[in-house]
Design brief:
Length: 308
Amino acid sequence: MIIKENVNLASHTTYKIGGPARYFAECRSEDNVLEALAFAKEKNIPYFILGGGSNVLVSDKGYGGVIVAIRNDNYELKNNILSAEAGVMMRALVEETASEGMEGLEWAGGLPGQLGGAIRGNAGAFGGEIKDVIKSVKAVTPAGEIKEFKNSECNFEYRTSIFKEEPGHIILSAEMELKEGDRAKLLERVAELVEWRRSKHPMEYGNSGSIFKRKDLKEVEEHIIKKYPHIEHAIRDGQVATAFFIDEAGLKLKRVGGAEVSEKHPNFIINKSGTARAEDVTILAGLVKSSVLHQFGIVIEEEIQYLG
């Protein structure tokens, strides 16, 4: 494995933002991952696991440690068990399982990023979550050992897991248990969701996906619900889409430098000009948070991860 120096990270993220990494290790096997960790330990510097590059904002100054770029992408579907390495793109897994008439991942139609990132953040949409199909996850522990985690040991919760809450875990692969479904209906559903994301999300610009997590309906005071009765359209599974609050606060098209609150979907802060800096996004995210707090008395929390 070749470890490169001073690799610009903008081209390795969906935001197309960020400075250089001091070291960049492209890992195509478990041994590569362990080698990269040993290198970081030898240099006494931090490391960061970078998958598909979504849901992360890299500092304009870059990252002074080792980027462990997961590039292992093998998978196998045997009967109803899908075995896949962390670097496989979710798009590939969705297409493969739907084409084989296996149900369980169709909700992820159009979802960006890799399997490892989806597991780490317990990705979900349209009533489905990755935790619903995970049988086991193989990962490197903070102690440097390779361990297999059963679903119950992953501590899955809304948009998080043990792999996110306890830094130092590195997901290597996973087994997912699916069930037989109607191939034609699954393919139709996947195509429908891909088109929905294309039409509703600003995919034509650099972005990291949703900036903020959804809010639990229990945290929204009754007088807000009465004042904005149309909030009911933003409620799903007991949670309120944060885009509702951002929109009602009149923040669509709000700009700082090259960063802009998307008119198409206000929970996206986009790299509109292609020249936005991480600082622009960070300042704009702060303005959105303070505006929503001022108008609704609600604290919204970032879903995006800041690096550097």
